[in-house]
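Quick one, probably user error.
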């Protein structure tokens, strides 16, 4: 005999809780797949809006998310109260909901771990290329360090190459729970020198040319701005004339590959490592301070910057 459980009306309090916490799940529980799709689309629009439109207004974005959740909770409660169908479809039963949520969670985890992952940039160390609180979309596949939310799924060797000028996100060598983003200027085997705020790679000075001042987003402070060219890539960097030539240096692994003076440093990049700099040269903690980035620490290459 078929179980009578599939004929029971949905519980109003469960519908409300699901509507508050997982809006599409609340609508599926009350057997409204159309509304579930609508709330899913609305959630996606809100996420994109927070990234593109409300990037500097976090409280406004949080208020919109909370408002939609409350509306959905009330909506789901009323639909459960007025439920009239004789038979509950499979996707409104607990096993259907658990299966759908688990499938979406696995899909989202897999996409973030192996394909693309968003990051929020917390500093001005890469200004003007990456401004404070910008969103980064990072390409993950091909770099061998797969995982997300602090969970390492698998590590493999690199199958995608990196070039000078690429911006990469990596695990900070001194604390791998932190993610940094910097520009690669030195590949394995390169000789890097940075003296008197001029960069040389393999004894060739990298050309820069002066452009208009950069006005910082959070205040009226101006910085000298230059265009620097690495190969066929050209990007802006910031220089503060009064700042020290190099930031304070700490002890780091393979430091024997570097020589430091008051005017700068020179390094031979070890195999399996990279030398990185911030574009905001005098306000960046980078390879000049804490050394080289091991290849295994590379999370991925920045594909898109959402300022």
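Nope, works fine. Designed sequence:
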């Amino acid at each position: 005999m078929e179980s009578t459980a599939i004929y029971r009306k949905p519980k109003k309090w469960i519908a409300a809780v699901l509507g508050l916490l997982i809006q599409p799940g609340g609508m599926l529980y009350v057997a409204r797949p159309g509304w579930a799709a609508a709330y899913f689309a609305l959630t996606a629009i809100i996420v994109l809006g927070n990234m593109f439109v409300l990037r500097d207004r976090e409280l406004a974005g949080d208020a919109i998310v909370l408002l939609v959740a409350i509306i959905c909770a009330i909506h789901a409660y009323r639909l459960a109260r007025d439920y009239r169908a004789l038979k509950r479809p499979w996707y409104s039963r607990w096993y259907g909901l658990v299966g759908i949520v688990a499938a979406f969670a696995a899909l989202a985890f897999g996409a973030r771990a192996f394909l693309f992952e968003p990051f929020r940039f917390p500093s001005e160390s890469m200004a003007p290329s990456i401004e404070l609180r910008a969103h980064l979309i990072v390409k993950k596949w091909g770099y061998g360090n797969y995982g997300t939310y602090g969970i390492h799924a698998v590590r493999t060797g690199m199958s995608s190459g990196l070039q000078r000028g690429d911006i990469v996100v990596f695990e900070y060598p001194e604390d791998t729970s932190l993610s940094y983003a910097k520009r690669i200027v030195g590949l394995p085997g390169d000789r890097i020198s940075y003296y008197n705020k001029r960069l040389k790679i393999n004894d060739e000075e990298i050309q820069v040319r002066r452009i208009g001042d950069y006005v910082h987003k959070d205040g009226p402070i101006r910085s000298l701005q230059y265009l620097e060219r690495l190969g066929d890539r050209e990007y802006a960097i910031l220089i503060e004339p009064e700042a020290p030539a190099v930031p304070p240096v700490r002890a780091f692994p393979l430091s024997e590959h570097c020589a430091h003076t008051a005017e700068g440093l020179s390094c031979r990049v070890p195999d399996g490592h990279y030398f990185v700099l911030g574009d905001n040269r005098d306000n960046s903690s980078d390879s000049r301070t804490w050394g080289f980035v091991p290849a295994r620490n590379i999370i991925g290459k920045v594909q898109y910057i959402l300022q």
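The mean pLDDT is 89.
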